[in-house]
Amino acid sequence: MIVRVIIAEDVGLPPRHLTRLFRDYEQESVHATLLHIRVTRAREALAADPARSVKQIAHAAGFRSASHFTQCFKRIIGRLPGETPADERVEPVRP
After folding, report:
1. DSSP secondary structure, 40-68, as one string
2. Which of 41, 62, 76, 83 has the fewest CB atoms below 10 angstroms from its CB?
3. Backbone angles phi, psi at 77, to 5 degrees
4. Residues sharing a CB contact under 8 Å with residue 88, sequence separation 6 or more, in sequence order
């Protein structure tokens, strides 16, 4: 899993400075942005392969448990992972 310290090291900034810059430009924390990206990618995977279980998708997206994934998914997407239609088009996540 990518964490703030690793990102800070990669860009050559102290972690606190990275956090401040990130909030100034993105209006949310590094953690919140990474969580949103992981949930969006999981949503894409659910739509692309409805035969895969929520647990498989959760683990592939880096969540330790399906229940934590489900909570995050519901908070960000607004519905449960199992309620995602297979034909739903999802905007690609920015790199």
Report:
1. HHHHHHHHH-TTS-HHHHHHHTT-S-HHH
2. 83
3. -90, -30
4. 43, 47
pLDDT tens digits, one per residue of 16-54:
999 999 899 989 988 899 899 999 999 999 888 888 899
CB 55 within 8 A of CB 70: no
CA distance 78 to 58: 17
Which residue, among 17, 70, 9, has the nearest Cα to 39 in the 3D structure?
Answer: 70
Q: Do residues 73 and 42 make contact, with C-beta atoms less than 8 angstroms apart?
A: yes
pLDDT at 59 over 60: yes
Token code pair at residue 85: 């239609």
CA-based R_g, the chain, Å:
15
Domains and CATH numbers, the chain: 4-83 (1.10.10.60)
